[in-house]
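Hi Y.,

Following your request, here is the sequence exactly as I used it, all 250 residues.
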Amino acid sequence: MRRGFTILIIVLFSGWSNMARAQYNVKDSVVKGFLVGASYAAELPGGDLAKVFGWNSNVQIDVEYKTKTNWEFGAQGAFLFGDVLRKSVLDSLATSDGNLISNDGTYPSITYFERGYDIQLSVAKLFPFKKPNPNSGILVRVSAGYLRHHIRIQDNNWTPQIDSNYTQGYEQLSEGFCVTEFIGYQYLGNHRMTNFFAGFEFTQGFTKNLQYNFQLMKMDNSTKYDLLSGFRIGWILPIYQQESTKYYTY
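Below is the corresponding structure, written out as tokens. Let me know if you'd prefer a different format.
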């Protein structure tokens, strides 16, 4: 198994190296092909999301197809995570001094995390500059898709009140439709060794709670307006499509 995986990595690397050595006229003309990206964003919440969470990290993988007219069509998948909780969710279980009692009679060590992800489809337009090439410039992207997030409650002791299925009543698991706008700069190097993008990103989510809320003692069916804004920077692996060679006879 390990040998097969090693061979696969060598084959993929060799293939990419051969493509990297191939001659593409990136400097003088618009090229087409796939852009595989990995990026990171630090985000601040807004709207209803800011009532629960503080700032979070966002790691994203995206695959886009760039056309000869500098349009880009693609898909993105992102993982959201953080550890800043602005709202206490276990008040109804706490003692008068604000603590819970674990099974052994001590105060448990409970930590809270933000967890979530989104999956979106996107369309973008590149507005190139004369330098360094017509494949680099201002990038404007709009995407839409699915957003899901919840509070992860980690109990380092055994506390029966939040054990097993009881935890779900406090997680505030939510999902819904989302839209994201991005504006920034995309750079595709003339020699294909340095390719990146960076810019500002804004997400609007329209989510609903999926679980019974033990704090409210009912299902919360109201639509939440979740906002995220931040700065994203990422690396791009371009896989250009080689132009077919044309022959003319006279």
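The beta strands are 33-47, 56-66, 71-82, 110-128, 137-155, 174-188, 195-209, 212-213, 218-219, 224-240.

Thanks again,
Q.
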